[in-house]
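Summary of Year 1 activities. Much of the first year was spent building the evaluation harness for sequence design. The harness presents a backbone, in tokenized form, and records the residue chosen at every position. We chose the following record to illustrate the format because it has been used consistently in internal testing since the harness was completed.
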């Protein structure tokens, strides 16, 4: 069981207590953390996070297969979560600004958009 995080803080119920989550919702939140945090930036676990930030302003021919590989690497320690696909999203100026990731959690697909 975990506590729901919204907009960078604990989400609270009407009575002011933190909202508890479990099962699919907990796994989805964990996946979002792993994909959103730049790999190597978390002091206590340098292996936590993704390398998506490397795509921003990159000279790499940023293909969806590279993003898929990065997502799989970020979630390799989460055996209950599988990465089904990853699609690079471009902004108005054609720069990469996000990666849309399709996850398989508890037999259900979940789509998340990771801004970079």
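For this record, the design step produced the sequence shown next.
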């Amino acid at each position: 069981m975990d506590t729901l995080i919204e907009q960078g803080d604990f989400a609270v119920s009407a009575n002011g207590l933190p909202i508890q989550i479990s099962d699919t919702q907990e796994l989805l939140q964990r996946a979002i953390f792993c994909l959103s945090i730049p790999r190597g930036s978390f002091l206590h676990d340098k292996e936590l996070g993704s390398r998506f930030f490397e795509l921003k302003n990159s000279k790499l021919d940023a293909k969806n297969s590279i993003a898929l590989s990065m997502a799989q690497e970020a979630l390799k320690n989460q055996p209950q979560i599988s990465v089904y696909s990853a699609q690079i999203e471009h902004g108005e100026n054609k720069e990469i600004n996000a990666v849309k990731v399709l996850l398989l959690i508890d037999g259900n697909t979940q789509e998340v958009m990771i801004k970079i």
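The first helix runs from residue 23 to 36. Quantitative recovery figures across the full test set are reported in Table 2.
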